[in-house]
Design the sequence.
């Protein structure tokens, strides 16, 4: 990456983080919504902890799926407010870098939210915290990369639509399904202390999704953001 | 030189722009006029590559503006109905970001000077979320003044401005002329169009007619 591109990427990332630092709307809304979902899960699942532990990984990623939609929608809503996005895409900016900055900042926001939420999640569901918590967090970060690549790509497609808030979940949920299945298998394996050989194939699938959608987002963002 | 050739654009099978062709020489100011919904803003957004034309070619100094090479847009600046800024940022932060992404190194003191010129210096560190329409319009003028592009695409420069603001726009356009830079201005006032424009392009039923200003 050339010096100019690096500088431009730094400016774009700084912009994303500074807006969030000022508004606190993305992380705060994701946190509140995530905690609300956990509470609903905790209060409505009237089953033993042996059964609940089997569902906990799925619950965690279902919650993450919902909060990603909220976070990404908010992130693009800033761009629409004073039509800042038009000015950004008409500027001499490599549009792929806009995608990368949204991807990286989105990853930071979702990971921060999950790091805050992870302990309440296990505590409120009356479950033991995974023995290998670091591995759980590390794999979650990898999955977050995949989620954010897909979510930002889809957001780029729907941002110009008047129905973006409806189109976003409709398009994101099916596209994220394979990743969510892999995420659940990985997290289930870690929560239940299964050996790596049992779930490593799912890690490879997640890596493939990250690479595929990361590259697709970078290459296609130039075209999909045009009205 | 800007060359717009055979531009077609339709929305829901309704032809908005129908074979639009015109050229703009360096230092020429074009006043783009027409009734509401005739496609003036659409045409400007297509030139700025915010919107994609159904077909047609646009070149600036021989370089294809519809290509993915963002460097070709370096000397061009589009400003639409909205200021294109971030509501949580202050004017200083917005302008700094704008200059950074254009790789323009401009000293802080010049930013302050320009904001002072347009009467916004007292609001330099206040988020623009609470700015009035007129203040946002003046902030657009600051952006143009700082970037000083070779080709300016400005949609309705006089909207929401008070008498002082109108004079500021007049002065800014005058400076563009003096510097021999080009601009396409979407205007509704025929008098202003005659005053500033070297030629008037009138959009009607998707077609364009050219009138040179004497």
Sequence:
């Amino acid at each position: 990456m050339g010096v100019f591109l690096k500088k431009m990427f730094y400016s774009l990332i700084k912009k994303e983080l500074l807006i969030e630092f000022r508004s606190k709307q993305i992380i705060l809304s994701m946190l509140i919504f995530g905690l609300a979902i956990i509470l609903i899960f905790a209060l409505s699942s009237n089953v033993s902890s042996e059964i609940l532990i089997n569902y906990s990984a799925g619950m965690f990623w279902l919650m993450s799926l919902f909060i990603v939609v909220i976070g990404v929608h908010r992130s693009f809503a800033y761009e629409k407010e004073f039509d800042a996005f038009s000015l950004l895409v008409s500027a001499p900016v490599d549009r792929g870098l806009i995608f990368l900055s949204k991807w990286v900042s989105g990853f930071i926001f979702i990971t921060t939210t999950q790091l805050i939420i992870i302990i309440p999640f296990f505590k409120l569901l009356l479950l033991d915290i995974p023995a290998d918590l670091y591995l759980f967090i590390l794999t979650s970060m990898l999955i977050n990369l995949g989620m954010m690549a897909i979510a930002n790509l889809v957001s780029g497609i729907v941002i110009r639509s008047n129905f973006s808030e409806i189109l976003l979940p409709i398009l994101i949920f099916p596209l994220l399904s394979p990743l969510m299945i892999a995420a659940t298998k990985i997290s289930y394996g870690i929560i239940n202390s299964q050996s790596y050989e049992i779930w490593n194939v799912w890690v490879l699938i997640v890596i493939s999704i990250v690479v595929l959608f990361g590259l697709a987002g970078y290459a296609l963002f130039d075209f999909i953001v045009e009205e | 030189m800007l060359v717009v050739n055979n531009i077609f654009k339709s929305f829901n099978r309704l032809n908005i722009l129908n074979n639009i062709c015109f050229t703009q020489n360096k230092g020429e100011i074009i006043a783009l006029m027409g009734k509401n919904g005739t496609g003036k803003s659409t045409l400007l957004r297509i030139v700025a590559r915010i919107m994609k034309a159904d077909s047609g070619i646009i070149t600036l100094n021989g370089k294809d503006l519809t290509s993915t090479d963002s460097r070709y847009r370096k000397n061009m600046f589009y400003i639409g109905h909205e200021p294109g800024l971030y509501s949580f940022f202050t004017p200083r932060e917005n302008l700094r970001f704008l200059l950074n992404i254009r790789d323009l190194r401009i000293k802080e003191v010049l930013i302050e000077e320009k904001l002072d010129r347009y009467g916004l210096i007292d609001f330099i560190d206040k988020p623009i979320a609470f700015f009035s329409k007129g203040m946002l319009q003046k902030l657009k003028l600051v952006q143009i003044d700082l970037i000083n592009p070779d080709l300016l695409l400005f949609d309705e420069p006089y909207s929401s401005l008070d008498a002082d603001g109108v004079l500021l726009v007049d002065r800014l356009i005058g400076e563009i002329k003096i510097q021999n830079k080009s601009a396409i201005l979407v205007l509704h006032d025929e008098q202003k169009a005659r005053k500033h424009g070297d030629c008037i392009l009138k959009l009607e039923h998707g077609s364009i007619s050219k009138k040179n200003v004497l």
Observations:
- The two ends of chain B are 21 Å apart (CA to CA).
- Chain B has six helices and ten strands.
- The longest helix of chain B spans residues 163-178.
- The helical segments of chain B are 40-47, 91-101, 108-117, 133-147, 163-178, 190-196.
